[in-house]
Amino acid sequence: MRYDFDTPVNRRNTNSMKWAVGEQELPMWVADMDFATAPAVREAIEKRAAHGVFGYADLPRQWYQAYRDWWKRRHHWEMEEEWLIFCTGVVPAISSLVRKLTTPAEKVLIQTPVYNIFFNSIINNGRQVLESPLVYEDGAYRIDFDDLEEKLADPQTTLMILCNPHNPIGKIWDARTLERIGKLCYRHHVVVISDEIHCDLTDPGYEYVPFASVSEHCRENSVICLAPTKAFNLAGIQTAAVAVANPWLRHKVWRGLNTDEVAEGNVFAVEAPIAAFNEGEEWLDELRAYILENKRIVQEYVDRELPKIHVITSQATYLLWLDCGAYGKEAREIADFIRRETGLFLSAGEQYGGNGSRFLRMNLACPRSTVRDGLERLKKGLAAYEKA
């Protein structure tokens, strides 16, 4: 490999949220990679920093073109420049859109278990969370379309937040599934926000499908949230975009983002995505291969050493969803015990809704040495938990 993902980067004492833990603790929780970003991105940031003047930033044509070229080249979807609107992050955009596209007490549908911050964006804005739980069957998840349509048909349901690919289960929704969701939402006048922030972190050999690409209904009735931040580890730069094809909907989105003052970027938020999309492709492909090998290592270790754990097969993200149901206890209790006993910090699954209370989420975007350390701690913690 050309790029080094094996050498650990010491992130302690860098104001890292992930690494604000005890000296002997190992954080493998929040979706934040322990790898330095692509060299081309670092060079672009360093070059801009060397200029020394950091005034208000404008969006050059290169920013729009970088997004358009990347999605056409990597994901076979052609966006128009006018569809794109800058925002400071996918979460700020979702919260803003919940406020702009719904009214208080209306229902926002999510498919659980799902990214926990969706709950915050809904509840904190005075709307109701409406869960359409994914069906967990034979160790895998699928959509219950009867339940989904029944809840979309509720006149109080006016917005759906789709996770594509789906966090935490790592599932890529295929075009047929997305088209079916799009038809139902269009039929019942429910706008779709599709969070596609993990789209570039598919396993080698797998491709994600942009929601807006599969049909006219999907394109004209959706807001697509895009960003380089997960794939290139740029969350702290605060840079993202939304793509809205429908001009009427786009105006509402533009007004919402600007009213909430989340539509203006800093100088690095402009430079970083341009460099990532234009020059980071080779780095990203090596990263994806590295993460896939981490997944394989975990799967083999769990099969051999932890037979009570079931690893949900995923095709995307660097997050693993671990079924601990065989232990007969809530995952929160198990996670807390493992952290106290070994220092391993995993995410407890109940915060993701649905059947998450039987799961732990493990972040594998780290060097192999960290993965192996985490697995040994997990084994030690679960053995101690069973004895206790």
Q: If you had to describe this structure to a student in words, what would you say it looks like?
A:
Helix 3 runs parallel beside helix 4, helix 3 (90-101) crosses helix 8 (247-259) and helix 10 (281-305) packs parallel to helix 12 (368-387). Helix content is 40%, strand content 15%. By secondary structure, the protein is an alpha/beta fold. The chain has a seven-stranded mixed sheet, sandwiched between helices. A four-stranded antiparallel sheet has the order 11-12-15-14, covered by helices on one side. Strands 1-13 form a two-stranded parallel sheet. The longest helix has 25 residues, at 281-305. It has helices at residues 39-51, 61-75, 90-101, 117-123, 145-152, 175-187, 216-220, 247-259, 267-279, 281-305, 331-342, 368-387; strands spanning 26-27, 84-87, 107-110, 128-131, 135-137, 140-142, 157-163, 191-195, 222-226, 240-243, 310-311, 319-323, 344-345, 347-348, 359-363.
The ordered H/E elements are EHHEHEHEEEHEHEHEEHHHEEHEEEH
Helix content: 40-55%
Secondary-structure class? alpha/beta
CATH fold topology of the largest domain: Aspartate Aminotransferase, domain 2
| Largest beta-sheet characterization | 7 strands, mixed
Strand order of the largest sheet: 2-10-9-8-7-3-4
Can you count the beta strands?
Answer: 15
Q: What do the pLDDT scores average to? A: 98
CATH superfamily of the largest domain: Type I PLP-dependent aspartate aminotransferase-like (Major domain)
Rough shape?
globular
Uncertain regions spanning at least 5 consecutive residues: none
**Rg for CA atoms:** 21 Å
Number of individual domains: 2
